Amino acid sequence: MGGDTFSPDVNGSARFAEHLASGLAARGHDVHVVAPSAKLPVGARTEIYDGQKVTVHRLYSWRWYPHDWLTFALPWRIKQNSARIIDEVKPDVVHFQSHIIIGRGLSDEAQKRGIRIVGTNHVMPENMLAFTGIPKFLQNWAIGLAWAAARRSFIRADVVTAPTRKAADYFEKATGIDNVYAISCGINADEYVADFTPRTENRVIFVGRVAGEKHLDVLLKAIQLLPADLDTKLDIVGGGDQLKNLQAMANQLGIGDRVTFTGYVTEEEKQRLYTRATVFAMPSIAELQSIATMEAMASGLPVVAADAMALPHLVHDGKNGFLFTPGDAQELADKLEHILRLPQAELDVLKNESLTIVAAHDIQRTLNTFEHLYRGEPVTAPVVGRSATDGRTDAA
């Protein structure tokens, strides 16, 4: 398995790769991960994830300074490193999580050796523009180049997947590669705790990278627009390059005393923060699935999310929460207020519906599906059929 981001990085792609690797290891597979060093020692060593031993091959990497934490493996050494590791490990299958550097090298060398290749796309080039310094008038050209580069790597794969049907359709349109499987990243819902005791405060929570594409300025404005009698508190859980700017904005809006920016927290603390919250808010317009939204649902939270990309796959409007027009702070505030004023019995209906919907995203189903794909076997769920919402269905 390989990707341009992996633990200790905190993002959806890295977390999916971590849980997929540990889940496969728990089933008896010998799992090797190729990843940037990310300030860790270079070389191969055993690392522990979810209590499972995984061999991680850390490649010498440099910091990408426009970004607040990202490091990258050296592109001019990736083919040599990929060939060396593949020849040492002799894998039955190579599964790359991004095409930019490590996935490009692994897929190229695996193809030369006739090794089965699976590729999963978690990347939206549009989200990376803020960290490139590319002038605005050249950005569409750059996005086109990025998708062309993605095609060159993913076309080598025997199977291509994306986290949701929406993400798969988006990828197919951008690259011209057809029959992309939609397979949920999955979560271990048992790790999260739903609390149905009567609430004593109104607390909104967001979990994720504190970055521009998350549109957290919209959430801050919505909190400021909520009626004072609700005395709503907001927890923004995560770190990112926009942290200081958003802290300043919260103070300017006069809600600094009601907004807590936790920065990065442990898994245990994150789970506790989910459990004590009343509602989860996701204003992002660039979610290919949103593991954080699934975690919130597994914690029994109703969700108010932007009606964008893959979020409608998780948030069924009026069932387990509400969708709002992206960027519309007043509409977000109105939907949050509606939930915060619900009687406990009606709130519990939304909470239970979140638990029901997220059950379909159990990590064990995801592991089963990938095991079939690794072996070249047909998957048990329809993956390119039709659904009631957008004409396609998801696997796992």
TrEMBL record:
InterPro entries attached to this UniProt entry: Glyco_trans_1 (IPR001296), Glyco_trans_4-like_N (IPR028098), Glycosyltransferase_grp1 (IPR050194)
Instruction: Give the highest taxon in the source lineage.
Output: Bacteria
This protein's UniProt keywords: Glycosyltransferase, Transferase
Q: Could you give a GO molecular-function term held by this entry?
A: glycosyltransferase activity
Which positions fall inside the Glycosyltransferase subfamily 4-like N-terminal domain? 10-190
Q: Has keyword Glycosyltransferase?
A: yes
> Which part of the chain is the Glycosyl transferase family domain?
198-345
Xref: PANTHER family: SULFOQUINOVOSYL TRANSFERASE SQD2
Designated name of the protein:
D-inositol 3-phosphate glycosyltransferase
Q: Which organism is it from?
A: Herbiconiux daphne
